[in-house]
């Protein structure tokens, strides 16, 4: 493939039509073309989890996906998880439990937690720890993050 490719993606519920280079990553497309900067770039190798998004409802690494691969699919970023005003219940739990310090990993953690709670509304602490094991945090020691997700699970909300 050479030259730009036309794609249509549903991003956070909005239809997006764009012409993209075949090698443009989804992370770069979201950040530079759509200005959705909540999708963070860390390692750019799929290891850190900072770029986690939902692709058709499943957690995925935006740095490992090409924008052209998402043609015809639904992409939800951390921005798409918030209600029109305020925070989602999961985000409020992150705030309540001080589950962030520098905040770099937070969007990926929240998206990963959202996916977990969608699949398993009442996970055990072990399931929560397993679910976020692919998301690296250098600040919190993970305990507040696990506490926040467990709190959201007790409420039965995301």
Give a structural overview.
- There is one protein chain.
- The chain is α+β, with helices and mostly antiparallel strands and 158 residues long.
- The protein has two domains: 5-80, Ubiquitin-like (UB roll) (Roll); 89-152, Orthogonal Bundle (DNA polymerase, domain 1), CATH 1.10.150.
- It is 32% helix and 16% strand.
- It is built from five helices and five strands, in the order ββαβββαααα.
- It has helices at 26-33, 89-96, 106-119, 125-131, 143-155, and strands spanning 5-11, 14-20, 52-55, 58-61, 74-76.
- It has a five-stranded mixed β-sheet, with helices on one face.
- A hairpin with a 2-residue loop joins strand 1 (5-11) and strand 2.
- Helix 2 (89-96) crosses helix 5.
- The longest helix has 14 residues, at 106-119.
- The model has no long low-confidence stretch (mean pLDDT 94).
Explain briefly what this protein structure is.
The protein has 158 residues and is an alpha+beta fold. It has helices at residues 26-33, 89-96, 106-119, 125-131, 143-155, and strands at 5-11, 14-20, 52-55, 58-61, 74-76.
What would the keywords be for this entry?
five-stranded mixed β-sheet; DNA polymerase, domain 1; alpha+beta
Number of helices: 5
Structural class: alpha+beta
Q: How many domain modules? A: 2
Strand arrangement, major sheet: 2-1-5-3-4
Q: Roughly what percent helix?
A: 25-40%
Order of secondary-structure elements? EEHEEEHHHH
